[in-house]
Design a protein that fits this description.
Layout lengths: L2 E10 L9 E8 L2 E8 L10 H7 L10 H10 L6 H4 L7 E4 L3 E7 L5 E7 L9 E6 L3 H12 L3 E4 L3
Length: 159
């Protein structure tokens, strides 16, 4: 199966201390990650377009989506699902293929977990490093990302 799982309710480090309209869900596929914005309950609805609209039946009107819907759509892609194929169907999402991931670091320096995604900087001069904050289980991160990343996954969570 191409969909492996997801990490929900993450906040970009750059958004900390600001009003958060969207959290992020990182959907894990066998070939990479799809980072998807998910509206905070009570926030503005997100207009879905393309494949996702058809799968969720949101044809015309705007609809607020949730992490559970992400999972349903990702599972619906079946064995052929990929991060690169999934991301374009989710408004504001982007794919990160495992091939360009230099390393992913999970740390818990204080009360919240930090998931750092380090990408090889491409020709477009991409960000190189993105940090997400949330409540992440080291065991779950290892389970979902370990097989694909191997030595590129670093978990630095003390007792």
């Amino acid at each position: 199966m191409a969909y492996l799982g997801q990490f929900d309710n993450l906040v970009r480090e750059q958004d900390r201390g600001h009003a958060v309209r969207f959290t992020r869900s990182i959907v894990v596929f066998t070939d990479g990650l799809a980072v998807c914005p998910v509206p905070v309950p009570g926030g503005s609805p997100v207009l879905q377009r393309g494949v996702l609209s058809r799968l969720l039946g949101t044809g015309g009107p705007a609809r607020q989506v949730r992490a559970e819907q992400l999972q349903a759509v990702a599972l619906g892609a079946g064995a052929d699902g990929t991060a690169g194929g999934f991301a374009p169907g989710w408004r504001g999402a982007h794919a990160i293929p495992f091939a360009i991931v230099e390393r992913i670091v999970l740390a818990r320096p204080q009360q919240v977990s930090r998931l750092e995604i380090h990408e090889a900087v491409g020709a477009d001069g991409g960000p190189g490093r993105t940090v997400y904050l949330g409540d992440l289980s080291p065991a779950r991160v290892r389970e979902l990302l370990g097989p694909a990343l191997g030595e590129r996954l670093h978990i630095d969570v003390g007792p």
